[in-house]
Design goal:
The chain is built from 1 helix and 8 strands; from the N terminus they run H-E-E-E-E-E-E-E-E. By secondary structure, the protein is mostly beta strands. Strand 2 (41-49) and strand 3 (52-60) form a beta hairpin.
């Protein structure tokens, strides 16, 4: 055991009942890269506070209008079309649908967002059905990918929502 470790442990022990937290960092910031010959880039931040995970994303290079955003199964953004990420993340094996739909939805079915006339967009999303680097595989988003689609999700077509090609990808690795 190193001196640095002993000091850190002592610090956490002394301040364990204060407002300071010695838990691991629960924030992931990723850069989205263009796919499918698009120019779509972005920055996506995930942060966990208690039982809530907040996603904030900013994108540029989009065509104006509505675009789908999903979490996909794998953080592998290596293919030019983004298909190396697999399908929507669906650890509870439900049908595709709008987030919160009583008849089912994938944990990766975030929804649609709007790009302005300059191709810029922001989206914020918060849920208690995700966690960052926890032991619950039905909630842990680490190892997944954020995919932005060319079009909007129709919330009906199975299993993908018929949102078109994958125009941007970011792998969630911590």
């Amino acid at each position: 055991m190193t001196t640095k470790y002993n000091i850190s442990y002592l610090f956490c022990l002394i301040f364990s009942f204060s407002v300071l937290s010695c838990s691991e960092d629960k924030t992931i910031v990723v850069e989205a890269e263009p796919k499918s010959d698009s120019n779509v880039t972005g920055t996506i931040t995930f942060s966990e506070d208690g039982d809530q995970v907040l996603m904030n994303a900013v994108f540029t290079g989009l065509t104006p209008g509505s675009h789908a955003i999903h979490l996909h199964e794998y953080s592998d953004c290596s293919s030019p079309d983004g298909k190396s990420t697999g399908g929507h993340w669906n650890p509870t094996f439900e049908d595709h649908g709008a987030w919160g739909n009583e008849t089912g939805f994938h944990r990766g079915d975030i929804g649609n967002f709007e790009a302005n006339e300059n191709g810029e967009a922001t989206i914020s999303f918060e849920t208690n059905l995700w966690c960052i680097n926890c032991d619950d595989e039905t909630k842990n988003i680490v190892g997944k990918a954020v995919i932005v689609h060319q079009g909007q999700d129709d919330f009906v077509s199975q299993p993908s929502g018929a949102a078109g090609s994958r125009v941007s990808c970011a792998g969630l690795i911590q």
